[in-house]
Amino acid sequence: MRDCDGVVGVQCPRTEANPFVGDVVEERGLLLGELPVVREHEHRIVGHRPVDDGVAVLVELDDAALVGEAFERRGESQPVQRDAGAGLDGFVADGFLAVLESAPDQGGRRALVGVEPADGRAVEDDGDGVVEHEVDPDVIADVVGEKEGGRDTPTEDVEAAGTAGEVVEREIGCRRGIVADDDELAHTRHWPGRELRLSDRTETSNRAAGPPDDVQGRRLLLGCVLVAALLGLFVHHGATADSHQRYPGNEEIALSYEAYAGETVQIAGIVRSLAANGSGGGSDTAIGSTGTNATMTVVLRGWESFGTLTVYGADRAVPPGGTIQVVGTLESDRTIIAERVLPVNPHSWSEPYKYAVSVVGAVLILLAFFREWRVDAGRHVFEVREDG
Amino acid sequence: MADLLSHVLAAYVLFTLAGWRSDAVTRRWVVVAMGGAAIPDLSKASIVVAPRTVEKTTGLPFSYAPFSTLGGVVLVAGLLALLFGDESRRRAWGFLVAGGITSLVVDGLRLSIDGRAGTLLYPLTWWGPPSPNLYLTSDPRVLGVTLGVAAVVFVVDRRRST
Lengths: 388, 162
Fold this sequence. Notes:
- The complex is a heterodimer.
- Chain A is α+β, with helices and mostly antiparallel strands.
- Chain A contains six helices and 15 strands.
- Chain A has three domains: 1-206, no CATH class; 247-348, CATH 2.40.50.140; 351-384, no CATH class.
- The model of chain B has no long low-confidence stretch (mean pLDDT 93).
């Protein structure tokens, strides 16, 4: 370590004098309780331990300005503060040892994640048990210490960070990782009586909360298949429904009127005017009554631009604005001799009434549903409300 | 097609009654079936975007009518069931389909000018079951009767659960 190198200590409550454990130094340059920072060293530390089923423990640091800063070398021997090993027994027993990694060209904020084997294997003096580390970009640590020039000394409190040359430590979560605001990765120590405090989150992986990607992928794939099938039904029905109709309908009449003249047709029309010839013609009191020889002028529903047709001989009288279905003979002079008439919407308000009531129904569904179910934002699914 | 509220209330009545006989039909699944009962009414999307507009835009024949058929109910229920967790997805799909079929049956009872209930079984068949011509879809009395029955069932159900 150069004299100019800053050594960052750890500020933490000292509970009691603890055994000096910092001298448990691994032979290959890694101090137990210190910060192994060189990637190539990692392999030796990690060995061939699998970490797939490890428990990740987030360790946080801010190394925003690490570029160009001095970087600790793994071979450096670091005098260990006497208090540094306090509480280490607990750490070792838990099998935790955070391995923080940074690189000189690392620019952005990073939080390193040490992955601990699920079996909680203890850290050996030579560093066994240090297995893996990952980067979590979402975590920032606290400021707790200050730079001390060239020597390893117990740490002191600092007021604030930010001035030139000033180094402010960040207490990095559960392990011993400490990094300064000037992004020099410092030696670390164990602080007494300290258990996992800041980053006590444990995860089975570093993936964001939510269903596994393959589950989401299957849902998405199945959803696409269903949408495609539904669109296929829409197109198929639109292409083939006419051939299955008993009588030509609105579209055929509007597009090829002359071709269907003299044939029996079935139309859906919106009444424009009514001229009833039978009892009660022209008044709402006779609407829906039978025996009326009514004449109604209608437009084809959905094909209003085609113009009006006159329906003769209707046995139902429907006022303007109502909707009727008619089965009858299509004449060449844009008239239909009705055989049967069904008043689908016998009043001008019938259709708005159905829509309004349907809106009430939709609201009722939503209210009833969300009394029993709620959205699980993490899994993107509905789940049963516990208080439902 | 009957109004959506009548569809939903009919499903509520039927599935609540079923819940009195079966512990598997709890209140939370009754509401899922009520949601399924709304599937056929999605054909009202034609109010928002007319089929002819879709045809002009895409150059393909198009119809919303499959929403009101068995095929449309099954597919839309499948899409909605994907919104449920793995543990309840199949059951949700079942209740959604059952609710949708309830609405199709209710629609099949309405007045029809040709005496047929329409192609409710599409795409399995274009055959339309005969309709008993029981009601006119826009008749407010249909909703009145449905509301009354649903209210009675609601009150009885609450008393049973307390």
